[in-house]
Amino acid sequence: MTTPVLAVSRRTRSTPFTPRVEALGVKGYTVYNHMLLATSFRGVEQDYHHLKRHVQIWDVGCERQVELKGPDAAHLLQLMTVRDVSNTQFGQGLYVPLVDEDGGMVNDPVVLKLGEDRFWLSVADSDVWLWARGLAYGLGLDVEVFEPDVWPLAIQGPRAEELMTAAFGDAVRGLRFFGFQPFAFRGHDFIVARSGWSKQGGFEIYVDRADLALELWDYLWDAGEPFNIGPGCPNVIERIEGGLLSYGNDMTRENNPLECGLDRYCYTQGGFDSIGLAAVEKIHRKGIIRKVRGLRIDGDPAAVGTEAWAVHDGSNPIGQVTSAAASPDFGCIVAFAMLDKGFWSPGQTVRVNTPHGERSGTVCDLPFPKPEAKQV
Amino acid sequence: MTTPVLAVSRRTRSTPFTPRVEALGVKGYTVYNHMLLATSFRGVEQDYHHLKRHVQIWDVGCERQVELKGPDAAHLLQLMTVRDVSNTQFGQGLYVPLVDEDGGMVNDPVVLKLGEDRFWLSVADSDVWLWARGLAYGLGLDVEVFEPDVWPLAIQGPRAEELMTAAFGDAVRGLRFFGFQPFAFRGHDFIVARSGWSKQGGFEIYVDRADLALELWDYLWDAGEPFNIGPGCPNVIERIEGGLLSYGNDMTRENNPLECGLDRYCYTQGGFDSIGLAAVEKIHRKGIIRKVRGLRIDGDPAAVGTEAWAVHDGSNPIGQVTSAAASPDFGCIVAFAMLDKGFWSPGQTVRVNTPHGERSGTVCDLPFPKPEAKQV
Q1: Which CATH superfamily is B290-369 part of?
Q2: Contact A8/B138, CB-based, under 8 Å?
Q3: Cβ contact, residue pair B7, A306, below 8 Å
Q4: Is A139 helix (H, G, I), strand (E, B) or coil?
Q5: To 10 degrees, the CA torsion angle through B111, B117, A76, A175?
Q6: What is the mean pLDDT of residues B206-212?
Q7: How far apart are CA A130 and CA B80, in angstroms?
Q8: What residues of A are in contact with residue B31 (Cβ under 8 Å)?
Q9: CATH topology for B18-61+150-239?
Q10: Residue B289 has pLDDT above 60, yes or no
Q11: A-B interface: how many C-beta pairs under 8 angstroms?
Q12: What is the value of pTM for the model shown?
């Protein structure tokens, strides 16, 4: 098996932070929303330990914003999601499953309400702007849909709040989870949110000024020195431990939000205009036939590549593993599996065909129950 | 500058041919339509020489098909493009610029008419299925839009016809450019078209049976042995020489089809229902303000990375280079440049800021005029 390099071009867009990412020795990239996203610096496991103990700065410029702007912006947003967004408040982000008319997942962005008629959808890896524009055109809605140049920068890790307080003052501490407010840097107000794609705590800064991007990066880096700041990126081990599903990996257009465990973001009783609502209500009534679960797998470390691992009960196929990584803190392989009805109860054991052979797995809830404290 | 590896996951989908691509020593990948696409095997320049002299087999499974099926399929297709598609014939593919209501390029697929109510769009790198579905839903059209599992496999190079004739018989020779018809393999009819993303001649097989994919690959490989078959992929040097623009690199949603030199695929006189037609007609009336041209650049080899190169006239910016590669056969760097009005006449000289410093460039038509025959 070779380990091919990523051949870049304009089509695999860089971000204003790419020079720092390169200088800090990025070892792996993926492409996300047609843009570079680092996958490791000192190695996935070393990055993981650092993320869980200190603080990291992440170039997540690939979390593209899709802006909805105009009198029908709120209406279009509601049409796209099965979550009731009528009470969305300025200053409070909202996780919303985007669902098509068949109940299939289109994306799972965080929505920021910037004004009565203005929203940002911080999207996962699919061209949501095309879906939104198609709907807006077809329905004759009075709304602009576009992708503004905004490149999120994340500060993640247990010492993220200390760093951000040092950088922006005590007001940072007042941010609730998913809450956001503007903070000034070099005379420009940047939106800062308490959010990010780890369970270690942290913040995301919505950088909408390319000319200030490197200055901001360096300012945060300097502010982070006392807290042992390091370069980082979404970490596959930590995200699985934390139960963070990845669109395209653990859920696709083939999945509905209920089987993805997103029940609490679906208002299946309805009462609002949503394209996907009828389909999701129907699935809810009939009951789902498969469900995402955690899986602890014994044996050798291994990661899921481009192909899911088959799960079976000894003889018949009962599901598939969509992401997996060896967890040092849990002492096993942690994984997400989409499991058939009858096989998703916590504690059940299943068989998994890994690249290293067949292994035993134990079903568990998500997020993974924390392991016993270990000596470090 | 590091050369990071591509970290793969389910989100960067493999194809049924990936095992052969890996076994043949792929050196670089990119991600295209959320799928792996090889970028070199023996090195871009060695691949180039081989492609122009012999024949190659390419895994272009990333050319995803978007299927439009149902009574309104033809209507939806026409809405999405500014090319008149009313006379599309079964058996004849058509290159169509997809354009939004602002005249911006959404994609540039080849359309295959499979039946009166059934089309495949063989798409470049954007989620066209989301655009098409959004329009269909919003306009209440009676059409299904989905991405069937079809993975094109290409045979490209001057000896492609010999190979394909050996594999499928003399009927292959009857295919016109972009023409297609079914050919049987192991009892299954595969659509075969005379097309492909090189100017060396060749064919694309629309592989809609994953279980036959490797068998077909091996069959073609064996048939190609007398013609010195090798592994290959779209080659950046050859495609620039041949004037093949790449969506995402040389044209984006920021560009209209007229400035991309796609005039001959735009019926600006209209007479049919198309979302982008009014915008393109308006641009046509006012005249374009920039245009894609070829550029021969002197000096050291270099390739455009994620950032375009600035073009200027000695003092003022006049455009940008979007793709570039050192051409052994042309003895210079060949490039695509989007140039401002007044600076796009063939023969004009411009200045280009390359990573190796400022260079002189000469504007030329596309495709590049063939160089004098060289001794090989």
Answers
A1: Aminomethyltransferase beta-barrel domains (2.40.30.110)
A2: no
A3: no
A4: helix
A5: -50
A6: 98
A7: 12
A8: 6, 12, 30-31
A9: Gyrase A; domain 2 (3.30.1360)
A10: yes
A11: 196
A12: 0.96
